[in-house]
Amino acid sequence: MDKKNGTTHFGYQQVPRDEKEKLVAGVFHSVASRYDIMNDLMSMGIHRVWKRFTIECSAVRPGQKILDIAGGTGDLAKQFSYLVGDKGQVILADINESMLKVGRDRLLDEGLSSNIEFVQANAECLPFTDNTFDCVTISFGLRNVTDKAAALQSMCRVLKPGGRLLILEFSKTNNPLLTKAYDAYSFGLLPLIGKMVTGDADSYRYLAESIRMHPDQETLEGLMQDAGFVNTSYHNMTGGIVALHKGIKP
What we know:
By secondary structure, this protein is of the alpha/beta class. The protein contains nine helices and nine strands.
């Protein structure tokens, strides 16, 4: 991101910083209704394994308060709702109104309303008081945030001391053959699947580009440390195509 010139990346394009949020919103407005179907098709269902591992690493217990940022259609929030129980609370937050509506309707249809709250919120300036949450998660959302450093600082602020941040995100593989195959899939097949299922190839082309522009594992861990997190670590999955980053608020 070029703060001096007021630009940032939207996929491979350079755009004014104040326009990126609107452009990203357009992508997710376009794909929201078919988002879950596309996730299953894109990952051949493996995204469910990645998310299950994230839930297991959260160490969430009954009675805790959880914030799921960029929670979208509610995969993580649903599981957290079961874990925290009647005395706990889960807040599913998303900046995108269309995604939030899909998630809210889905979870309400499944009878999960007693301990879940839905909030439209920007990760860079979370509308919650300091030291509120036992755990904060963001799953496949950080790469779409304009100012990642500000978002990480905001996440640290709202966590309780000793609280845990989990970031599940596409990352970088160091296997040349896997990288070549992944690139061919991402830029060749993925937009075609997006066109067939959602009628929108451009949004999935952007998603592929946004993955390539996202910081690698070590860089993201450094950003977490700069934001104030300690005991940071990451765990690669599927050859580094996806990584789960963890950090603790001191």
